[in-house]
Amino acid sequence: MNGAGTLARVGLAVDLSAGRLRIGRSERLRRTLRHETLLDVSLDDAEAARARVAEWSPRARAGDAGGRAGGPEVIVTACLPVHECLTRWLRAPLASVAKAKKVLPSLLDIQLPFSIEDCVHLFPWIRRTAQGEVEALAVAARLSDVRRKLETLSALGVEPVILDHEGLAIWSQSLLEQPPCGPGRRVVAAVYPDHLALALGETGVGGQGNDRFIGAHSVRPVESLWQAAGQPSTDPTIQRVISRVRQILQSQASEAPSSVEWVWTGPGAEDVALLEELQHHLLELGDFSFLRHAEPAAFLQRALATRALLGGGWPCNFRTGPLTHPAIERQRLRESRRTSAAIAAAGLVLCGLGLAWPRVLETRKANVQAELETVAASLAPDVHLLYGQELRVTRQALQDRAGLSRPFLEAFEPSLASLLVETLQTARAQELALDFLDLSAGAVTLRGAAADWDRCERLAEPFRRRGLHVVVERQDAGLDEKVHFSLKGGRAP
């Protein structure tokens, strides 16, 4: 649903992770979105968290109610964390995208660690390649994980319409807020107390603006990286994290990239000491340049709301099939009813035209016949013709008088003498030797020789201007080393 955006004016993004519930509100302005954080509560006390959500929800509904163009005024979105879903790139050896869509689920089933019947799978990106194949990005999540996420949110009073993919969300938002400086590899790292989400991709593939998402990974556990004072620990966890990052980078390319643009985000990106420690170890893997998104703690909320309101590349909504939100079902039902009503109205119009059109034709035919009878009566008042015989009698009369009128008509036709003069002048200008010429009012036969074939073709132009259909044929070469040709033409039948 979020591929092309929605008509909603307000997007509410829910970030539920690491024992905290964060809710952000994004509102459409003329050319941008305005973001704000509505709620940031701990889930240690579930009752208190539900009470805070209950306090916030009525105000949001009261302030944002009303609907817009038949769609919802407020759309709620959440996401599955990277470690609860997977991404795979698939290739189908087919030239047709429509045919490839039929076999992609089978190709995905082979790569899944569980049955495809037990999961929700989507294909956010499907394109033909230059090699004539079809390439597709597949995302999948267990049905049990999707249901558990929805039940957890529902217990807190949150009913998301869209359940997005965390990796796709942070990747697309990173490109939006921090456009790449040039072609290369980019890693968006969202640091949370319970996991490190990595979204990898290539920027500027095939030109500026052609950015390619490669995959998403989650590194866990990372809890020991954090301390109460906000300082990184000295245990081996950092080395395990760095080792895992090295494996991920090497698995995505035939060789480790020489330069990587590493962009930090997430709540952990506000801990400067933690980032400095991680960056120190990452520099051991290669040439990294580090950036950090503004307001990183609310980054995921902005990403989810932006995708819900504005759409964009790699759309994803795990709430599909039996898990579809009732609001989407109602919207589809309204659209179906509008389409049915439009088709019914068009059918009624066509039925009306079908009934009225024969009468219109009969009326026009009667009008033409009346005008024809009027003209016939004015030209030959003493001649009485049968109904509908006017044209036949007129053609027969013209044919009977053709012989008497021919001398008069020929007097106004172009003279054959002028055509003969023009033909001879063209032959002289093109240095053509004419052996035979037979010219009449409706036919011509000519034979001759020329220095090259193009000059033979130019001789046909005077006859074509007089309306004759002329064909120039090349003959066998003679001893004079000239191009011999024949020209024949006549009136088109």
Task: Outline the fold blueprint.
Layout (H helix, E strand, L loop, with lengths): L9 E8 L2 E9 L4 E10 L3 H19 L9 E7 L5 E7 L4 H15 L7 E10 L5 E9 H13 L6 E4 H12 L6 E8 L4 E8 L8 E8 L17 H15 L7 E7 L6 H11 L4 E6 L6 H12 L15 H54 L10 H11 L1 H9 L5 H14 L3 E7 L3 E8 L2 H6 L2 H5 L2 E7 L8 E9 L2
Parallel strand pairs: 1-4, 4-8, 9-12, 12-13
Antiparallel strand pairs: 1-2, 2-3, 5-7, 6-7, 9-10, 10-11, 14-15, 15-17, 16-17
Name of the CATH superfamily of the domain at 179-292: ATPase, nucleotide binding domain
Discrete helix count: 13
Question: Could you say what the CATH architecture of the domain at 179-292 is?
Answer: 2-Layer Sandwich
Largest sheet, if any?
5 strands, mixed
Global shape: elongated
Task: Find the count of extended strands (DSSP E, 2+ residues).
Answer: 17
In the CATH hierarchy, the third-tier topology of the domain at 179-292 is known as: Nucleotidyltransferase, domain 5
Strand order within the widest sheet? Answer: 3-2-1-4-8
Structural class computed from helices and strand pairing:
alpha+beta
Helix content: 25-40%
Verbal overview:
The protein is an alpha+beta fold and 493 residues long. Among the domains are: 179-292, Nucleotidyltransferase, domain 5 (2-Layer Sandwich), CATH 3.30.420; 337-406, no CATH class; 416-491, 2-Layer Sandwich (Gyrase A, domain 2). 40% of the residues lie in helices and 27% in strands. It is built from 13 helices and 17 strands. The chain has helices at residues 46-64, 97-111, 143-155, 166-177, 237-251, 272-282, 299-310, 326-379, 390-400, 402-410, 416-429, 453-458, 461-465; strands at residues 10-17, 20-28, 33-42, 74-80, 86-92, 119-128, 134-142, 162-165, 184-191, 196-203, 212-219, 259-265, 287-292, 433-439, 443-450, 468-474, 483-491. The strands form four sheets. Strands 3-2-1-4-8 form a five-stranded mixed sheet, sandwiched between helices. Strands 11-10-9-12-13 form a five-stranded mixed sheet, with helices on both faces. A hairpin with a 4-residue loop joins strand 9 (184-191) and strand 10. Helix 4 (166-177) crosses helix 7. The longest helix has 54 residues, at 326-379. It is elongated and about 115 Å long. The two termini are 63 Å apart.
